[in-house]
TrEMBL record:
<protein>
    <recommendedName>
        <fullName>Amidophosphoribosyltransferase</fullName>
        <ecNumber>2.4.2.14</ecNumber>
    </recommendedName>
</protein>
<feature type="domain" description="Glutamine amidotransferase type-2">
    <location>
        <begin position="32"/>
        <end position="249"/>
    </location>
</feature>
<keyword id="KW-0460">Magnesium</keyword>
<dbReference type="GO" id="GO:0006189">
    <property type="term" value="P:'de novo' IMP biosynthetic process"/>
</dbReference>
<feature type="binding site">
    <location>
        <position position="376"/>
    </location>
    <ligand>
        <name>Mg(2+)</name>
    </ligand>
</feature>
<dbReference type="Pfam" id="PF13537">
    <property type="entry name" value="GATase_7"/>
</dbReference>
<keyword id="KW-0658">Purine biosynthesis</keyword>
<dbReference type="InterPro" id="IPR035584">
    <property type="entry name" value="PurF_N"/>
</dbReference>
<comment type="pathway">
    <text>Purine metabolism; IMP biosynthesis via de novo pathway; N(1)-(5-phospho-D-ribosyl)glycinamide from 5-phospho-alpha-D-ribose 1-diphosphate: step 1/2.</text>
</comment>
<feature type="active site" description="Nucleophile">
    <location>
        <position position="32"/>
    </location>
</feature>
<keyword id="KW-0315">Glutamine amidotransferase</keyword>
<dbReference type="InterPro" id="IPR029055">
    <property type="entry name" value="Ntn_hydrolases_N"/>
</dbReference>
<dbReference type="GO" id="GO:0051539">
    <property type="term" value="F:4 iron, 4 sulfur cluster binding"/>
</dbReference>
<feature type="binding site">
    <location>
        <position position="468"/>
    </location>
    <ligand>
        <name>[4Fe-4S] cluster</name>
    </ligand>
</feature>
<dbReference type="GO" id="GO:0000287">
    <property type="term" value="F:magnesium ion binding"/>
</dbReference>
<feature type="binding site">
    <location>
        <position position="266"/>
    </location>
    <ligand>
        <name>[4Fe-4S] cluster</name>
    </ligand>
</feature>
<keyword id="KW-0004">4Fe-4S</keyword>
Length: 492
């Protein structure tokens, strides 16, 4: 077997790890994160810390809009939360209602005009919108709106909702219901006016959204870790098809969709995206990932000297695999957490060995050892090959790869930045062929049943465990109406 590293450009933008679509690194890109506050005098500060906790969901841009009851104060910028919001700037964001957003550029352009929340003037005052997800029929609706006179200011699908609301002759809540009934996709929306906050989840619950309380204030976040950060109490998840309205009279629970749809929360949230200290549907991510590793060990045991996980998302699963097998868990790889936004282009030599900019093998740990390498997924396969070769170069005598998800064969249309199926290695090659392609001694994937059982246990009422597994089994929970413009990723 050849142990040579694959060469090629890993940076196409101005800095390492810039959202660069199909030319980016061989990992699934984070989605986006939203955070909302209703009726807290320090809404902006709470949003700052909440967005900081959600930073892993988007590193391209951050934004916040705050209302004092009569006017909006808002700011958006490119970069990390701590870069976008300075101390002086935060003092200008006064008010007790706020929505915030962190974004990872995917199908939308990476530019300030697409940073959220999007802010508009309409007949009843100010309107701000923030979302995580993707509207699959947005191209069709957008074309209809443009033909009837609408002028769009961004390339973001989120703007479609604002136009649908603004063009309705009904009040805000009924107009929002009509708009949500028209769109198809996976989404979690926060919509704010000067004195109201609307919160909505798509009819299948594809994108996560939770509600908490801090004193008398209500808070909303893509993940519970953001609520924990500010000391808020978790109340519950927002239900699929639910529309919450918060105004001067308090919280009103409503729905925009009364049909019964199968629940289909994105399985990749459990496998990869969410922070390990977050809970979704009552399940802790770290515990679920440990169970995935344990189930992987039962399904695909291999004798080895040590188990290591690809940092950071696979460490929990690696611990589970090690505990199940009795093979020691070791920190065989170290992630450099400070490479995310370096504006200096690396040398050609480092470019060719680009994975080492973010990941290094611990030679004294893996040298002379048979290694089980746990990872969460294989997308194109190039990064897996680089990591396997990196472990071999550090002296590992065998590298056995175990993936704690089924083969990723199909693109996502609900908010994850994925290539089309022609670039997904599992849709083109068999497991044996992928094993040879990534230069591993053996390769196994977790079974769909094993994944479902690890996350939700044995649920006789729903064989899919309330999960969307379309990227594995091609069973998409919604119709796919692209209007001739098929788009992948998070178009918020």
């Amino acid at each position: 077997m050849s142990h040579e590293l694959t060469t090629g450009p890993l940076w196409t933008g101005d800095y390492y790890n810039e959202g660069s679509g199909k030319e980016g690194l061989d990992k699934l890109k984070e989605e986006c994160g939203v955070f909302g506050v209703f009726r807290h005098p320090d809404a902006a500060s709470l949003s700052y810390y909440g967005l900081h906790a959600l930073q892993h969901r988007g590193e391209e841009s951050a934004g916040m809009c705050v209302s004092d009851g009569s006017q909006f104060n808002y700011h958006r910028g490119m970069g990390l939360v701590k870069e976008v919001f300075t101390k002086d700037l935060m003092q200008t964001l006064t008010g007790d209602i706020s929505i915030g957003h962190v974004r990872y550029s995917t199908s939308g352009d990476s530019k300030l005009t697409n940073a959220q929340p999007l802010v508009f003037k309409y007949r009843d005052g100010d309107l701000a919108v923030a979302t995580n997800g993707n509207i699959v029929n947005a191209p069709t609706i957008r074309r209809e709106l443009e033909q009837s006179g609408s002028i769009f200011q961004t390339t973001s699908d989120t703007e479609v909702i604002a136009h649908l609301i603004a063009r309705s002759s009904k009040g805000l809540v009924e107009a929002a219901k009509e708009a949500f009934q028209r769109i198809v996709g996976g989404y979690a929306f926060l919509i704010m006016t000067n004195d109201k906050l609307l919160v909505a989840s798509d009819p299948h619950g594809l994108r996560p959204l939770t509600m908490g309380k801090l004193g008398d204030a209500y808070l909303f976040a893509s993940e519970t870790c953001a609520l924990e950060t500010i000391g808020a109490e978790l109340i519950r998840d927002i239900e699929p098809g639910e529309l919450l309205v918060l105004d001067a009279d308090g919280l009103h629970e409503d729905r925009f969709d009364h049909h019964k749809h199968r629940k289909a929360l994105c399985a990749m949230e459990y496998i990869y995206f969410a922070r390990p200290d977050s809970d979704m549907n009552g399940t802790n991510q770290h515990a679920a990932r440990k169970r995935m590793g344990s189930r992987m060990a039962i399904e695909s045991f291999v004798d080895a000297d040590l188990v290591t996980g690809v940092p950071d998302s696979s460490i929990s699963a690696a611990i589970g695999y090690a505990e199940q097998t009795g093979i020691p868990y070791e920190m065989g790889m170290i992630k450099n957490k400070y490479t995310g936004r370096t504006f200096i282009q690396p040398s050609q030599e480092l470019r060719e060995q680009g994975v080492k900019m973010k990941l290094s093998a611990v030679r004294r740990v893996v040298e002379g050892k048979r290694v089980v390498m746990i990872d969460d997924s294989i997308v194109r396969g190039t990064t897996s090959r680089r990591i396997v070769n990196m472990l071999r170069d550090a002296g590992a005598t065998e590298v056995h790869v175990r993936i704690t998800s089924p083969p990723f064969k199909n693109p996502c249309f609900y908010g994850i930045d994925t290539p089309d199926s022609r670039e997904l290695i599992a849709s083109q090659l068999s497991v044996e062929e992928i094993c040879r392609e990534i230069n591993a001694d053996s390769l196994e994937f977790l079974s769909p049943d094993g994944l479902i059982a690890s996350i939700q246990g044995d649920n006789q009422d729903d064989p899919k465990g309330g999960l969307c597994l379309a990227c594995f089994d091609h069973d998409y929970p919604t119709r796919l109406d692209f209007g001739g413009e098929e788009k992948f990723g998070c178009s918020c």
